Amino acid sequence: MFSFRRRKKKEKTEKVIENTTRESRRSVADDWKLDSVDTELSDYARNTSVSTTQDLKENCKNMVAAQNEIAGARTEYGIVTSYLTDIQKLEREPMEKRKELIGAAKNIVLCLREQEKGKERKVTLSAEQIRNLEQLENTRGGINRQINEMKEQEKYALLIEEDIRKLENEKKAQRKQRREILFKQRALKRIAIAIAILVFSFFVLFVMVALGSQTDMSIPYSITVLMAGVSGLWIFIESRKNRVDMKNLEARQERLLSLINSVNIKQVNSKGYLDYVHEKYKVTTADELEYQWKQYLQWTDYQKKSQMNSEKLDSNMELLKNELLRLGVQNIDVWSRQPEAFIDEREMVEARHNLNVRRQMLRERVDYNMNLRNQCLARIQKVMDDNPELEEEINAVLRSYDIEI
After folding, report:
1. 185 and 49, same domain (yes or no)
2. 367 is in which domain, residue-wise?
3. C-alpha–C-alpha distance, residues 12 and 18, integer Å
4. Could you report the per-residue pLDDT of 106-145, keeping only the tens digit for each?
5. Distance between CA 105 and CA 403 in Å, rounded?
6. Nearest to 355 by CA among 52, 8, 85, 7
7. Three-class SS of residue 117?
8. What SS3 state is found at 124?
9. Cβ neighbours of residue 398 under 8 Å, at least 6 residues apart?
């Protein structure tokens, strides 16, 4: 029983401690919730202020952009209107008073077309080639003499090359002939040795036969001697002929060598001249120089015509501007760049149509940006009305964008 009471007392003590701890925790939680609410309210107010400022800046940016667009569109609208006013002035003038204007416009169009044709002409000459041809044109004899000289030198160079080929062939033939003569001479030497051995053998044979059989060998001796003499004579004649042929061949070789040296000198001089003129005029043949000369003549002709055309264009452009000034046209520089409009009525109608379309587009652009500006202004006014406590900050933002309300 004592044990039961002590357990019961202990349980009561634990309940008291637990209740105390729970109340303490509840108190701390309530204090934390109060602090959290205060913090959230402060953050909300701060975030609201930041969001309001950002919205205000965004509307200010849009308003300034709209005002700039309106100003630009109105300026362009005035320019387009002045173009249409010029067209009305021109159309009110009778045709008699516009004759000079139309004539000048036609001449300008023709001159411009001629300029476009000139741009299509292909002249492949470099500036250096043009300078060389200009100098050659002013030299004594001119370009034709130089071209003819180059052609003659090129033909002469071809003849020299042909002579060199013939001389080389002759040189090969002489070498072959020399080898043949030397071969014949060596053959004669071998034949002479063979005949000498043969005659000696016959003599030995005849002596042995004469000593052995006591036979008269005078006739075989005579025949052998005769054969040896005839063979020796033939060998001598052929050998002498070979020596004469070799001597003649050496003389011909000397003359051939002299000719080769002479032709080589001519080739060097001819090649030196051609290399110089080719490098001077930046060509490889006389035909190419002749082609360049034709190109140069076309280029000079074009330059003369271009100069005349430019002078004619300038004079008619001046006349056109004077006539436009006389007729009271405001945008003279603009209309002087459109001479086709004064010649073809369809061009003027198309120009008027394009200007009207542009003006309508500008009106729509102005209306859109006017609505955008008014909307931005209304939003800015609403921000000012809804946030009087932010008046200083709002005024600072408006001043930064140069906006007065």
Report:
1. no
2. 15-93+345-400
3. 10
4. 999 999 988 888 776 666 777 777 787 777 776 655 678 8
5. 51
6. 85
7. helix
8. coil
9. 60, 380, 404, 405
DSSP codes joined into one string, 320-381: HHHHHHHTT-S-HHHHHT-THHHH-HHHHHHHHHHHHHHHHHHHHHHHHHHHHHHHHHHHHH
96-97-101 Cα angle (round to 5): 110
pLDDT confidence of residue 140: 52
Query: Do 152 and 241 share a domain, yes or no?
Result: yes
pLDDT tens-digit profile of 353-402? 999 999 999 999 999 999 999 999 999 889 888 888 888 888 888 888 88
Let me know if residue 99 belongs to a domain.
Answer: no
Does any domain span residue 355?
A: yes
107 HSE (CA, 13 A, CB side): 19
- Gap between the Cα atoms of 329 and 83, Å rounded: 9
Q: Which pLDDT score is estimated for 123?
A: 66
With tokens 């080769």, the residue in question is 260
Q: In this structure, are residues 161 and 267 in contact, taking their beta carbons and an 8 Å threshold? A: yes
**Per-residue tokens: 310:** 């430019």
Question: Look-up: residue for tokens 């202004």?
Answer: 377
Hey, what long-range contacts does 396-399 have (CB within 8 A, 24 or more apart)? 397/53, 397/56, 397/57, 397/60, 398/60
Residue 139's pLDDT is 64
Claim to verify: residue 260 and residue 145 sit in the same structural domain: yes
Total count of domains within the chain: 2
Question: 175 and 248 share a domain?
Answer: yes
**Residue pair 366/77 in contact by the 8 Å Cβ criterion:** yes
- In angstroms, rounded to a whole number, what is the distance separating the alpha carbons of residues 188 and 351? 111
Q: What does the angle CA 288 – CA 294 – CA 295 come to, to the nearest 5 degrees?
A: 90
What is the share, in percent, of the chain residues with pLDDT greater than 70?
85
Is 305 part of a structural domain of the chain?
Answer: no
- Encoded tokens for 75: 């300026």
Q: What is the pLDDT of residues 71-81, one digit of tens each?
A: 999 999 999 99
Q: Dig out the tokens for 332 from the structure.
A: 């003279």
Please report whether residue 320 resides in a domain. no
